[in-house]
Amino acid sequence: MQWEVVIGLEVHAQLSTQSKIFSTASTAFGAAPNTQTAVVDIALPGALPVMNKSAVEKAIRFGLAIGADINKKSVFARKNYFYPDLPKGYQISQFELPVVEHGAITIRVEPPKGEAYDKVVNLTRAHLEEDAGKSLHEDFHGMTGIDLNRAGTPLLEIVSEPDMRSAAEAVAYAKALHSIVTWIGICDGNMQEGSFRCDANVSVRPVGQKEFGTRREIKNLNSFKFLEQAINYEVRWQIDQIEDGHKIVQATVLFDPDTGETRMMRTKEDAHDYRYFPDPDLPPLMINDAWIERVKGEMPELPAAMQARFQSQYGIPAYDAATLTASKALAAYYEATVAAGADAKLASNWIMGEISAQLNREEKSIAECPVEAERLALMIKRIADSTINNKSAKDVLRWMWESPKTADELIAEHGLKQETDTGAIEAMIDGVLAANAAMVEEFKSGKEKAFNALVGQCMKAAKGKAPPAVVNEILRKKLG
Amino acid sequence: MSLTIDDVRRIAKLARIAVTDDELAATQQQLNRIFGLIEEMRAVDTTGIEPMAHAQDVMLRLREDMATAPDRRAEWQAVAPAVENGLYLVPKVIE
């Protein structure tokens, strides 16, 4: 039987505020346990939550970025469950009336087989809520350690429609979302520190069947690689179960990166009766048009718009424009390079090629690139005006990487300047032809290969300093 | 709507409230009286009235995003039953 995979994602993006969503405790990562907590976070009786304006503003930003509806009135609700890292006995979240609804994101999917394609993924909602603390299960004399520093950290839970049909689509969606939240500055996107976590709802159904199959939810995937592995494992597991005559039971599962398997955490029936109700401590959140308009005025140019502009303004292909707008910092670096006088397409090639490759090797981000846009631009200018060839340029870039010298300084220092005097090149070629009479004869008797050999000889004689195109042209003429 | 004894057991379990077997019937009765009250309210015609999410017609107050809370861990952990390395210790929980 042919199976269709159905995936919906819930992403928790930690909002990059200074203080917590309902208290004035700091949200900084990595502090000593329990040193960043306020009365609300440890749930002292009588402590009342007071909403952080910046968290709301970041939710509005997100809504605007994905073309969603921003609800003028939204409501906070209590989600009740018992766990020691949640001292209140409930999480403050939003249930019936979330702050953001609908909206969509266009994703670029690169499947393992076949052509890349675009797809629109619709969003159901995004709501504000607080994070829980951390439970440390190392052995504390048979007890569990609780750190409440994270309790009350503002989260935006972003829920998609079950629109994705493969792990590749789910990963593309998660990456697109990650790019948006970091781009608009509402989340630092640090997945190791848990600032961006994915839960995947996965089900399968026979191709052509209208109803969805029973889903299982894979919790807390904190890397794109795990997201992909977990979904692929889960899909195979569900299909095997059904083909063996078993029924899928709705459940929450965890992915174990060591085994590459998902395993059951709890069945959903009982534990998930959260008994939501509006939190009497928090009246409705009201957002007026003036506020939305002000936030709109402060929004940066979004990746899709910037991509289109790059194509028209710089005349670079769609692929280049998409790659260069993968992050704001990368796009800024590219624009600065072109503004400093570099050819737009050459700049794109070098940034996507050598620069990115070297940054990857060193596990650095573009912000840490030791070669500033201005220095890169000068090097590219020297390629464009034939002062150096591509091969020398790679050396120049490597040296610039390790020193503050400019391309011109390095070209002079290493004697890389190409011969541009065609008279001198002609004389050099004459010398080569005279010394390789046999090859010239071969060429004249119809062996095209001999021509390449002659070019090779010329380049060798020029020690790489003659522009290959010029050598080719003169050689053709002389052999005419 | 009225609750069965099993509903009462389930609600008590979800709320982590120990209701003994001989308290069940009385609890059921009390809860059902509350439901009765809700039924009465439901009978009121509320056509055209916008539902409220809060008893008072007020809106949420917002504060500026500033981290000003001092570290009071020592004070709070002094009254905690068990602490170690700055962590609160609780009976082991494993999913």
Helix residue percentage of chain A? 25-40%
Structural class of chain A: alpha+beta
Catalogue the unreliable spans of chain B.
Answer: none
What's the total helix number of chain A? 15
Continuous helix count of chain B: 3
Specify Rg of chain A, calculated over alpha carbons: 30 Å
Largest sheet of chain A: 10 strands, mixed
The low-confidence runs of chain A, each spanning 5 or more residues with pLDDT under 50, are none
Percent range for β-strand residues of chain A: 15-25%
Binned, the helix content of chain B reads: 25-40%
- What is the chains' assembly state? heterodimer
Q: What is the 3D shape of chain A? A: elongated
Number of domains of chain A: 3
What's the pLDDT, averaged over the residues of chain B? 91
The gyration radius over C-alpha positions of chain B equals 22 Å
- What is the number of beta strands of chain B? 3
Q: Beta-sheet strand percentage of chain B?
A: 5-15%
Give, in spatial order, the strands making up the sheet with the most strands of chain B.
Answer: 2-3
Q: Which structural class do you get from the secondary structure elements of chain B?
A: mainly alpha
Name the shape of chain B in a single word.
Answer: flat
Pfam families (chain B): GatC
EC number (chain B): 6.3.5.-
Protein name (chain B): Aspartyl/glutamyl-tRNA(Asn/Gln) amidotransferase subunit C
Subunit structure (chain B): Heterotrimer of A, B and C subunits.
Task: Summarize this structure as a short list of keywords or feature phrases.
heterodimer; A: 480 residues; alpha+beta; Arc Repressor Mutant, subunit A; 3 domains; ten-stranded mixed beta sheet; three-stranded antiparallel beta sheet; 18 strands; 39% helix; elongated; B: 95 residues; mainly alpha; two-stranded antiparallel sheet; 3 strands; flat; nucleotide-binding (chain A); Gln-tRNA_amidoTrfase_suB_CS (chain A); asparaginyl-tRNA synthase (glutamine-hydrolyzing) activity (chain A); EC 6.3.5.- (chain A); glutaminyl-tRNA synthase (glutamine-hydrolyzing) activity (chain A)
